[in-house]
Structures are given as C-alpha cells and as structure tokens.
Amino acid sequence: MLIEKKSLGEIAKALGRSKSTVSLEPKRNSTPEYRLYMSHRAHGRAEERKKQTDTHQRLKNERIEAYVRSMLKDGWSPELIAGRIEIDQPGLSISRASNN
Fold it and tell me: Scanning 25, 30, 51, 89, which has the fewest C-beta atoms within 10 Å of its C-beta?
C-alpha cells in the first residue's frame, strides 16, 4: 500500500489498526541503508526482536531469584522488593519495570 502511495490513514483503516501504529512500522522496519520498507525483511526483523525478548533473563542470578521468591512469599510487592534489594543485598539490583 505504501508503494501504491496510499496515505497512512487509508492503510490503517484497511488493516484495522490505529494510524500511529501504522506510522511506526515503516520507521522501525525500513532498511537502514536505503530507507526502504520491504515487508518480508520487516517480518524477519520483528521475528528476531521477538526471539531476543523471549530469552531475556528476568532475574539475573540465583541470589536475586532466591531473594525475590522469599520476599514475595512474605507478601512484599514487586515494587517494594525492587526498592529494598539494594539495601538488603548491596551490589544487587532488579528493574522495577513490569513486562506484562
């Protein structure tokens, strides 16, 4: 549809997506060398990003995992645990961000 010079609004409507979502796709997945959007390459890039996020280790090591499990068992929230770990276990840290 981009090759056919359709507007982002027309493409979004045809795909049942928001215009902002459609506008991000070519920016995120165009070839860096030529600034050209090719759907088969974009799909490959998206698949590679998905693989990388699936292998992201949530808790960096066994010490952190044991600490988190213990605190969760005691009723602590993830936010409190993330804030407290640096005090209880100097040198260790975890992200407060949620990856739902």
Answer: 51
User: How many Å apart are CA 13 and CA 21, to the nearest integer?
Assistant: 11
pLDDT in tens, the chain (100 residues): 888 989 989 999 999 999 998 888 888 888 777 778 888 888 888 888 888 776 656 677 888 889 999 999 999 998 899 889 989 988 888 875 544 4
Q: How many Cα atoms sit within 13 Å of 72 on the Cβ side?
A: 8
HSE on the CB side for 88, CA within 13 Å?
Answer: 14
DSSP of 60-90: -SHHHHHHHHHHHHTT--HHHHHHHHHHHST
For residue 19, give Cα distances in angstroms to 9, 45, 60.
6, 21, 38
What tokens does 89 get?
């276990």
